[in-house]
Structure formats: structure tokens, C-alpha cells
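Supplementary Methods. Inverse-folding protocol.

Structures were first reduced to a C-alpha cell string of length 309. This string, shown here, constituted the complete conditioning input.
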């Protein structure tokens, strides 16, 4: 088993440094024969490419470059150029522990022995953190739980299944859903998810501030639009639930946001009060009330546009 760790990146040089250093510190294991780190730069403008080209710190890294085309295209490029029989997807803001590869390898090997095949993939744990200096110091929180079937934050899968499924759909040009859509196709091929909690990745993002809200709202609107594309490809009730295109979600977030009256303006004083008292994570969870409302509105707006086209 040889791993190709595929990492798309776009203007994330400071945290990418921590990501790559952690991957160079992996424990050896007889469960895998070696690994490469395939970094696909998606048109960064922050000096990422020059820094990687001039650095001798990362012997496992192979740098690929493309014009800015999004994460789906970058991951496809990485998979197509990968030397390994097994692909691990992580994001460039993920910092792993020294047993990361060993844990994925052990779980994959045990599953192969148990099933006699490889119609499965392993899904590691992802812990969110705003601690840039020591990201791996963050404990697991209930908000870190994910029910996603296939998400590219921390997953290991045989390369041939990705090729058979058709890789990521590059039509997902905006934010969201390209990995879960591929997951639907992998599920149709009969692949199973196997949890691998020992393969922990710490997903770093800056602590929540009010200045982030416009970008977060825009992401939710984009996610709504891409959700409709997801539903076009897979018009099932399961996908409608995933993208929040049901009356249940309209009622839920409509009620919780008081029909949109609890929004970024009306809640700003409370959110800032929590931030000032060292509780940015709680502030973000409260902000998700109106962020989800924007998402639902984005879904239905995009669906109406589709019907009018």
C-alpha cells in the first residue's frame, strides 16, 4: 500500500506549512510501503509556489500547479498524477498527528482481511480548532461530529474507485457539495464507510469575528446554488434533506430566525458580547441560525431560477 496524500491549496501558506510539517513527522509502519504528498496549488497569489519550490524541508512533497479552477479540479489533477494505489484527501488547513497514516493503513488492512476486497474507504476524525500555535491541543467537541458519508477533509480510498466513479464533478464551481456528490456515486458502486477515529486531523480556522459574516453568508448562498446542482444530478429525498430543500428546513430555520428577523444585524450586539468574553465558538453556533436561513433561501432561489430557465 502506497499513499498519495492529495492536498488542494489556495492562499493558505501559513497553515499549509504546519500541515506539511506534520505529514513529514509520520511514524513508520509495515502496513504501508511509503507515501507522497501531492500539493496542487490552485493559482495562489501569496507566494505558496515559490516557497515550496525553494524549500528542502518537505522531501515527500510533489508540487502541481493549475490556474485557479476550484478544489474539484485540483483534486482531480492530483488523483490523475498520483503514484499511489491509495489516495488520502485532506485540506491544506488540516494538521495531523504522527500516527495519522499508520492509523488509516491499519484500518484499511483490517477491513481488507475482513471483507476480502477493497469496496470501502476509511474516514478519520476532524476536530475544529482556532488555535494556530498548537492546533493539535484542541479536544473533541460535540460540534465536531459529522454524519457525512464521503467528505474530503480526512478520507482514504483506493485510487481505482475514484477513477471508476468518475472523479469530482468540476461543474461545482462555487462553494460546497462536490465531495458529497462524489460520495453518492461511490455509494452506488457499493462502497462502505469505515470510521477511523485514530486518524485525527485538526482543522484550523481563525476564531469567529463579525468581520467574517459577509463571507460566511456568501458561502451559504453559494452552497444553496450548488445544492440545487447536486439535486439535479441525484433527485432523491436523501439529497433534498442534505441540501435543506424541504418544507421541514424552511419551517425550522424560518421559525428559529423569526422569519429572518434574527439576522446578522439584529444579533450583532449579542455575537460581539460573546466574542468579547472569549466565546467565539458559541457566537458562531448562534450565527448559524441566520446562516442556515440564508442557505435555505439560496436553495429555493436557485431552484426557482432553474424552473424559470
Amino acid at each position: 500500500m502506497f499513499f498519495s496524500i492529495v492536498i488542494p491549496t489556495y492562499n493558505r501558506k501559513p497553515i499549509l506549512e504546519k500541515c506539511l510539517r506534520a505529514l513529514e513527522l509520520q511514524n513508520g509502519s509495515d502496513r504501508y510501503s511509503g507515501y507522497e504528498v501531492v500539493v496542487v496549488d490552485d493559482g495562489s497569489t501569496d507566494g505558496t509556489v515559490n516557497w515550496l519550490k525553494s524549500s528542502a524541508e518537505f522531501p515527500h512533497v510533489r508540487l502541481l500547479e493549475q490556474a485557479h479552477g476550484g478544489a474539484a479540479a485540483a483534486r482531480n489533477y492530483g488523483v490523475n498524477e498520483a503514484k499511489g494505489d491509495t489516495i488520502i484527501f485532506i485540506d491544506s488547513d488540516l494538521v495531523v498527528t504522527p500516527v495519522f497514516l499508520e492509523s488509516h493503513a491499519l484500518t484499511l488492512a483490517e477491513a481488507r482481511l475482513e471483507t476480502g476486497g477493497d469496496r470501502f474507504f476509511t474516514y478519520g476524525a476532524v476536530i475544529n480548532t482556532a488555535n494556530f500555535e498548537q492546533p493539535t491541543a484542541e479536544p473533541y467537541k460535540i460540534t465536531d461530529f459529522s454524519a457525512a458519508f464521503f467528505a474530503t477533509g480526512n478520507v482514504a480510498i483506493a485510487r481505482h474507485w475514484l477513477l471508476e466513479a468518475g472523479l469530482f464533478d468540476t461543474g461545482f464551481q462555487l462553494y460546497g457539495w462536490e465531495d458529497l456528490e462524489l460520495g453518492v456515486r461511490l455509494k452506488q458502486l457499493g462502497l462502505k464507510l469505515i470510521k477511523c477515529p485514530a486518524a485525527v486531523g485538526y482543522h484550523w480556522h481563525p476564531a469567529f469575528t463579525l468581520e467574517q459574516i459577509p463571507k460566511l453568508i456568501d458561502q451559504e448562498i453559494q452552497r444553496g446554488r450548488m445544492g440545487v446542482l447536486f439535486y439535479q444530478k441525484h433527485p432523491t429525498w436523501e439529497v433534498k434533506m442534505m441540501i435543506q430543500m424541504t418544507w421541514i428546513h424552511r419551517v425550522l430555520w424560518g421559525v428559529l430566525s423569526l422569519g429572518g428577523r434574527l439576522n446578522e444585524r439584529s444579533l450583532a450586539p449579542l455575537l460581539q458580547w460573546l466574542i468579547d468574553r472569549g466565546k467565539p465558538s458559541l457566537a458562531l453556533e448562534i450565527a448559524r441560525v441566520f446562516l442556515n436561513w440564508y442557505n435555505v433561501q439560496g436553495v429555493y432561489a436557485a431552484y426557482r431560477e432553474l424552473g424559470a430557465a
